[in-house]
Each structure stands twice: as structure tokens, then as C-alpha cells.
Automatic annotation (TrEMBL), chain A:
This is ABC transporter substrate-binding protein. It comes from Deinococcus aerolatus. Residues 1-18 form the signal peptide. The keyword Signal applies. Keywords: Signal, Transport. Belongs to the bacterial solute-binding protein 5 family.
UniProtKB/TrEMBL annotation, chain B:
Belongs to the binding-protein-dependent transport system permease family. It is found in: Cell membrane. The chain crosses the membrane at residues 12-30, 109-130, 142-164, 205-224, 263-289, 309-328. This is Peptide ABC transporter permease. It comes from the Bacteria.
Amino acid sequence: MKKLFLTALLATLPAASAATLVFGNNGEPVSLESGNITDGISILVQRQIYDTLVDFKNGTTDLAPGLATSWSSNANATSWTFKLRPNVKFHDGTAMNADAIVFNLRRWWDKADPYGFRDQGRTFEIIGDLLGGYKGDPTAVIKDIVKVDNMTVRVDLNKPSSVLPNVLAAGYFGIASPAAIKKDGAKYGTPASKAVGTGPFIFQSWRTGDRVVMTPNKSYWGEKAKVDELVIRNIKDASQRLNEMKAGTIDFANDLTPDSLKSVQADKNLVAVKRPSFNVGFVSMNNRNQYLKNDKVRQALSMAINKKAIVDAFWNGLAVSNASFLPPVLAWANSSKVPADYKFDPAAAKKMLADAGYPNGISIDLWYMPVSRPYFPNPKPIAEAIAADLSAIGVKVTLKTEDWAKYLQDRNAEPGFDMYMIGWTGDYGDPDNFYGAYYGQNGSSDISWNPPEVQKLLEQGRAATTQAAKAKVYAQLHELTYNAAYRVPIAHSQPLAAARSYVKGWVPSPLGSESFNTISIDGKK
Amino acid sequence: MGSYLIRRVVRTLLVMLGISLVVFVFVRSIPGDPAVAMLGERATPEAAAALREQLGLNKPWFFNPANPMDAQYPKYMGALLQGDLGSGLKSNIPVISELKSRFPATAELSVAALLFALVVGMPTGILAALRRNSGWDNLATGISLVGVSMPVFWLGLLLSYFFAVKLGWLPPSARLGYEYTIEPVTGFYLIDSVIRGNGGAFWDALKHLILPAIALGSIPLAIISRITRSSLLDVLGQDYVRTARAKGLAANAVTIKHALRNALLPVVTVIGLQAGALLGGAVLTETIFSWPGIGSWVYEAISQRDYPIIQGGVIFAALVVSVVNLLVDLSYAALDPRIQYN
């Protein structure tokens, strides 16, 4: 028996294929059900399994054909028609057609849809956020979803929206197999079920807390995967992601801390990969505060912060300073009449504060988040640096923080924070996705400033059908918000990713996740 | 003995009931709302309110005058009595199935950590007691002090960096390399790989277990070492040991036969107490080592305010600690004939 056991121990060698690609994800996906997630960790996994109706060109936020080969709207952008790609099958062999698309869109949008499983805890909250609400809601963007013919779907809107294709291209909206959803019911998307899409990788298993394993889809309509197996591991801790990469137990990973850059560059087996920036970290000032409701005070504070020095000190050069509220790829929507943001000028700031009636300075609270976010990798020292800059013009700053979930809640609850750090990562490449989140009716209520002209411009922006027309509208919004100076952009960060040197063809998307079908393993692992 | 057991089981059930109520109120009293945590930066007050309603979190906690059963606690308890702990708020994964797949991982890690703590802690404690005030004793004291005061996550990262990155001897994290799969039988990888006759997976699982077990075992090791030392010193000063020595028994025989067995009692108590501490330590250790157990899962749930997962995790942890303490109390009787349960 003992001998048998030993023989068994010695005889079994790993049976893994040479071309297994291993990615270190920032944690465990919440769910593999498309339309019902909001976190980047889940999106990253879903991007491999599902296609979206519209896609993005590699490494950009420009639209490209996905499951729809073309799309067009009527003149005032209140109705969009999508022509579908023929001969595409889901991984379970069922056909991708208009019925399948309508099935997916309806279960997200119609609260009464029998396959939405809302009685069992499904929420699809991203629809409420990006598309104004659900079927029948007064604020909902979508009025109806119609099958025109077997390969054509039409989406009718309650109000003009030129960005519907961009929204539907976002990683939340992967198209899943209706047959698989009907088969697994409310279990769909959990580890006990198989996620079925049309994407470049086929889901094999999800070992809870540990990894998701996929194999290439040999009959994929687009660029076919170049590896034999894809393993996505959950590695929550950023230092451990780096350790794993250095040890060669994973091949590539996202969101390393900016201070790991040197360590990555010093390792000949690793290559630093910079993701194009598509986020903004900023400081917001609250109109309810007795000092901050004064325009001049806000402008003085905006001039007092040395953004470039902060970016150099805390991002290791992995960020863009001196930029507007919009990330660099959306710079076309900025005005040429005002600078991107306030120039650092402490002397002018001090004078402006005196002109505002506070020659002896003021006292305010500055809140910073207790967690690392992609746009503020280490909030506390950044907050300290901002406080030091402000104290140089006579502003006494009290630094405050609290638990992240509470922080997010309290900033919007009366009276809110005086000044606080927050940010945004874009879902799709349109200025509305940034401005709309923090200004106007659907925006955050953290600064208590919501003039009608801002709302009007936001609506004009959503209705504008060409980039030139959009640029005109958003330039006005840029001027208006620049002069109001309620939100001070600090940086657009480029989250640091890295890969082992044999990983070729990885094109990081500014949106934070992309399909790994372009990646090959070149040479020996 | 039988009636004692029944009493203990009933008491445990009452404790569980109490814990379910306490944790239910406690998680809902933590400031910060699950809907807001779920939405992150998107959490406008309107969006959060709509999501709360969808999740049923706007219902009264205990009593709904309109419909007595339509409140959160009665619903939760109704399901609990049928063995249903609910599902993750956002993931919709049943808490029970998650516990089933994750508990073996935590148990395997905790047992390994405890074994490491005992195997290293007891001998150092014994030696420290026998060579009192020697260099060895001081060294053992120093090691214990470091073990107790070094944060587990820091130690974990150091171990990972040194043994995995620098030396390349062991994997930095995870429970098993991607080359292997083990079809679960007991859920313990070391046992299952042997049952399945998969030697490669056995070694791989063992290699993955070493570093997290050392990190998690560092605090119990220090405590066990100190308790062993003081308890043995205490026993060595007792009359019966002096008598044994006076009878001319060899020093080793006295130590091993007479003193050690009696000195073990407090050590067993500490093991019982450490069961809770291990589950607590597992939270950090599992997070650092990407270990797919209960600790990392509950940790994530707390930051996300995922009520059903936190409740399920805490109730289950309480059950584990209760059972371990029952076993400890029963092993007393085996170790010390003066103790009897009736």
C-alpha cells in the first residue's frame, strides 16, 4: 500500500498545456451574469466570455462593430436600429439573433420580465444609472425594444440620445445565451452555473474564491484566441500580484501600486504596461459651506494646489496633471477659451482670498477616502499635500476620513463634506459619462450647485449627433464649470499594469478591461 | 455524560440564536449602506434608495404592522430554520453553498497553522522551562514577542516576498497551482489528492499551504510556547514532582511522565481559545494569500456591507468555536482523571 502510494506520488506530473495564460485579477468576480454587475473585476472576466452589441477598437474608446455590424439612428436620435452579425452562435450552439438580443435587453430593462428574476434578488442597477431607469419610469431613456426582423433590432427612446451605442458597448452589457439563462434560472451567473456568451473564450469553471478557467472559442467570429487555456486568478492584494508576477506564477496583472514601477522596471523578466488614462481624481467644494459658497474663495483654493508636484510625488509619473475634468482622450470636448484648469499661483491665490474678504485665511475640513482607488492610489498623503498647499495661502485644513461605504453616503447627505476627494472612471467614450455623473439632475448632490443652464447643456450634449456639435456644447459646459470652480481636477491616472516579457499583443483599453484574444505567449514560459 | 452533552448542545443552540439576533442588529447598525457600497462612486441618493428597495432593505427590521411576517428578521429566521442562510446581496450565490466550498479551505489552513504552532511552540516552551533563564530561554521569549507583535499581513507579505520571489522555493499565494485540479471528496486538498492518487497535486497543495500556515500560526505559536513554559515551571515546582525526584527517578522520566502530562492541560485550553483567534487571523491571512476560505470572503462582505454573508459567516464561526470548545472540555476528562462530567 505504502509503495503504491509512493508510486502514485512520483508518477503524476502536471498535465498543463504549455500555452496557459494566467491573469491576476484584483479580486473575485461578483457575478458572471451580464447586465447585473457594476464592478471592474466582474467586467474583466465577462469581457472574455461575452460580446457586446457594439464594441470598442482595441486600446481606444472609439466604437467598432460587435454583435451588431452596423447601427444608425433617425434624424433626432430618438430611435436606433442595429443590424446583427449573421452566423454567430453562442457557446452552447444556439443562434445569436434578434430574439436573443431582445431577450437580453428586455430582462435588464423591464422589471416585469419573467427572466429578470427580480423576485430572487436581481437588480440590474446599471441600467438605472446609465439609461435613466426602467420600462415605464418617467426618466427612462429607453421607450421600447423591438425585433424588426430576424437580424435587426430597434431601440426606441423617450428622449434623444446620441450615445446609446456607446452605452451598450460598455462592459456591463454582454449578450448571454437565452437558452442558458432559461435553463439555469436564478442560478445563472453564479459558480453553480455556466456563463454562456458568444465571446472569444468559453467558460469552463469558476472555483469560488480562487479562479475562473476558460478555453478558446475555436469558432469565434472575430480574432481567435492564441492560447490553449485562460486562467483568471483572484489576487486581491496589489503587492501579491507583483510577487506572483515576479515568481512567474501569473503572466500579467492590472492595478499595481504606482510605487511598484521601479521594481517592475528593475526586473528583466517584466515589462511595465501603462493603460491609457480614462479617469479623473478631483476635489469637490461644497456650496453649503459659508466660505466655499463664495466664488472667489473657490477660485483661490483652485490656484493654491500644486497639482504637478502632487502628481510627481505620488504617481511616479503615472498620471497626467494640468488637465480638465475630462480625461485626455476626450480633450476634443474642452474649450479653447479657458485653460484646462487653474494654474498653480500661490501669490495670486492669497490675494484672491484677501479680495474675497478673508485676508487672515479660513478654516475648512478636507475629507479623503480610506481606500485606494484607481484615480487616487494613496489618498492620505495626497490629502496631506493638498492641505500643505492650502495652508501656504492661510487656509487651515482639518483632514478627515471614515469608512468607504459611509464616506460615499455622507458626502451626499445634508450638509455633506466641506471639501472632499473623489473621482470617476469612465464607462464609455463620451463627455456625458463624466459630466453627467457629477453635474445636473442625475449627478451627485454633494456640492449643492445645480443651475438650470448646466442641465440644459447636458441635455443638448446628449442630443447632439455629431462630434463637432458635441464639442460646441461641452466647450460651453467646460467654461461654465471652470469659472464656477466647484470641482478641482487633480490628476488623470494611468493605472500601472505589468506582464512577463513573453506576453505579447496585450492592448490595454482605457476602459479598464479588454478581451485577451489578442495575446500570445511568445517563447518559453 | 449523556445528559451533560445534551445540556451543552441545547446551550450551543441558544447561543447561536442569540448570535443570529446580535449579528443581525449589529451589521445593520454599522454606518454605511449596502446599496451605496454596491454602487460605489455611482451612489446618488436616488439610485441608492431605489436599490435599497429592490433588495428589500427598506423593510422594517423586526415588525411590520401591515404584515407581521414581512420584516427582515422574521424572514431571515424563517429561512434559517429551514437551513437557508440567504444569498449574497449582489452575487446571488447561496451563503450555504459558499460556506460548503470555503470552510474546508479555512479548516485545512487553520489545522495546519495550529499543527505548526504546536510542533514549534511546545518544544521551545518545554526547553525554555527546563533551561530557565538561559540564553535559549531568552531567545524563545524574543521569538514569542516577535510572533505576537508582528502584524499577520506584514509577516505574510514578507514570507511571500522572501520564499517565493527571492528564493523561488514556494508559491507566493493561492491554494493550488493552475496546472492541477482536485475533485473534492472531503474538501481538504491534502487528503483528497491522496484519495484521488494525485501525487503531483498533493505536493503542490502542500507547498501552497506552508507559508500561509506559518503566517497564521505565528501568534498561536507564541502563545502556546509561553503557556507551555509557565505551566511546566508551575508543575515542576509541585510536591509530587519533588517526590518523584526524591524517589530517584531519572529527570527525563519525571519531566515526560509526570510533569508534562499535567502541564498540558492549560495548553489544551489555549488551543480551544485559539480556535476563535485562528478564524479571526484567517481573515487577514487569506486575504494576503488569496486563500479561498471563509476569512477572505467575510472580509470582503464587511467592506461591501453584504448582510447575508456577514450573518452567515459569523453564525457559522460561532458554531465552529462552540464545537471546538466542547471537544476541548471533553478532552480534559481524558487528560485529568479528577475532572468528571455528570
